[in-house]
Specification:
The structure is a single chain. By secondary structure, the chain is of the alpha+beta class. The chain is 21% helix and 43% strand. β8 (249-261) and β9 form a beta hairpin. α5 runs antiparallel to α7 (178-191).
C-alpha cells in the first residue's frame, strides 16, 4: 500500500467509529441528511489540485471521501485522496432539528468541514504533498434543515414510539415514510431561490520521506478563499476569490465565476477565472454524475496557460474524481 493512503485511511477508520457511535440518536441532525449537494474538498483546494476551481458553499456532510485520479488524463498525475468531516463527529450535538435553525453558532460549526488530503509529490518523489483545510458555510438558503416545511414534515412523521425505538436500540433504524417525504420537500427547496456564503483556509506542504514527524513536516503555502452562490430554478451562479501565499513565491490571486445546472442526478457547469499573477483568463467545464446513492463522479476539463520554451501556451487538463458521502 502506498504511503500516501495510510494517513487518510486511519482518519477514515476513526471517523466511521465516531459516526457509528453517534448515529443511534434520533435527535441527531445528521439522521435526516441525504445525498444533497456534496461540496468540494478543502484539502484538494489547499493543494491546488481540485477538479473545479470555483468552490461552493453548502451544508456539510458527516464524512466525505474524495479520490482524485488520472485514469482519463494524458498527464502524469499521481492519484490523491482527501477525507472531509464535520466537527459534529467530534462531539457537537443538538438536542433537536429545530435547534439547528435557532442556534446560529452551532449551525455554523456543524456546517464546517475539516479536511486532510495527500498526493504523491511530483517534485520530490520520496515525499508526500499534503493539504489541510477547513470550509465554513455562514448560511445556505438550500440547507434542507433550515426550512420550516421540512422540519414540520419530519416532526409529523416522527412520533414518541418511533423516537423511543431509536433511542433504545443499538441498531440503525429508519422511520417509515421519513426519507420519501424528505425527498419530496427537498425537490421543492431545490427549485426555490436564495443564496449561500462560505469561506475557507488551508495550508499545504511536504512530508519529507513520507513519514509523519515533527522534523519531516514542511509548510509551503497558505490558502484562503470565499465563495458566494445565487440559486435559481434551473441554474446556480457562483463567484469566488482565492488567494495563495508563499514565503518562496509571489502571491497568487484569482477571481472566478461559474454557472452550473441545478440538477440532482447530473450537474453540468462552466467556469471562468482571472489569474492576477499571470494576468490572463482561464476556463473550464465540468460534469458531475450520480453513480449510486452517496457516490458521484466529477470529470473536469480546464484550460490553463503554461510557459514552455519561453512561449505562453493554452493547455487542456483533464481530471477525474470520485466523491463518496459515507454519512449518507
Amino acid at each position: 500500500m502506498k504511503q500516501k493512503f495510510i494517513i487518510p485511511l486511519i482518519v477514515i477508520f476513526i471517523l466511521i467509529v465516531f459516526n457509528n457511535n453517534g448515529n443511534c440518536q434520533d435527535s441527531s441532525v445528521y439522521k435526516y441528511i441525504l445525498d444533497y449537494n456534496v461540496p468540494q474538498s478543502p484539502g484538494f483546494t489547499a493543494l491546488g489540485i481540485a477538479p473545479e476551481k470555483i468552490q461552493t458553499g453548502s451544508a456539510s456532510k458527516p464524512i466525505i471521501v474524495s479520490i482524485l485520479s488520472n485514469f482519463f488524463s494524458s498527464e502524469k498525475v499521481e492519484p490523491g485522496i482527501a477525507i472531509d468531516f464535520s466537527p459534529y463527529l467530534l462531539g457537537i450535538r443538538l438536542n433537536s432539528i429545530k435547534d439547528y435553525g435557532k442556534d446560529n453558532l452551532a449551525r455554523i460549526l456543524i456546517n464546517t468541514l475539516l479536511s486532510v488530503a495527500t498526493v504523491q509529490s511530483m517534485e520530490d518523489t520520496n515525499s508526500l504533498a499534503y493539504g489541510i483545510g477547513f470550509r465554513s458555510t455562514l448560511w445556505d438558503s438550500h440547507d434542507p434543515l433550515q426550512h420550516p416545511a421540512i422540519i414540520d414534515s419530519i416532526e409529523k412523521i416522527l412520533n414518541p414510539e418511533a423516537s423511543n425505538i431509536l433511542k433504545d436500540s443499538d441498531q440503525k433504524k429508519e422511520v417509515k415514510g421519513l426519507k420519501e417525504k424528505y425527498k419530496e420537500v427537498i425537490e421543492e427547496v431545490r427549485k426555490a431561490g436564495g443564496n449561500a456564503l462560505s469561506f475557507g483556509y488551508g495550508l499545504s506542504g511536504l512530508l519529507k520521506g513520507g513519514i509523519l514527524s515533527s522534523d519531516s513536516i514542511v509548510v509551503s503555502n497558505h490558502n484562503v478563499w470565499t465563495s458566494f452562490v445565487q440559486y435559481s430554478d434551473n441554474f446556480n451562479f457562483y463567484a469566488t476569490y482565492q488567494g495563495r501565499f508563499s514565503s518562496n513565491d509571489n502571491p497568487k490571486n484569482i477571481l472566478g465565476i461559474a454557472l452550473r445546472t441545478n440538477n440532482l442526478s447530473v450537474g453540468l457547469g462552466g467556469e471562468l477565472i482571472f489569474n492576477f499573477q499571470k494576468e490572463n483568463f482561464e476556463g473550464g467545464i465540468a460534469a458531475e454524475v450520480g453513480i449510486i446513492t452517496g457516490l458521484s463522479s466529477v470529470l473536469a476539463i480546464n484550460i490553463e496557460n503554461v510557459t514552455e520554451n519561453n512561449e505562453n501556451l493554452a493547455k487542456a487538463k483533464l481530471t477525474a474524481s470520485l466523491k463518496w458521502n459515507i454519512g449518507n
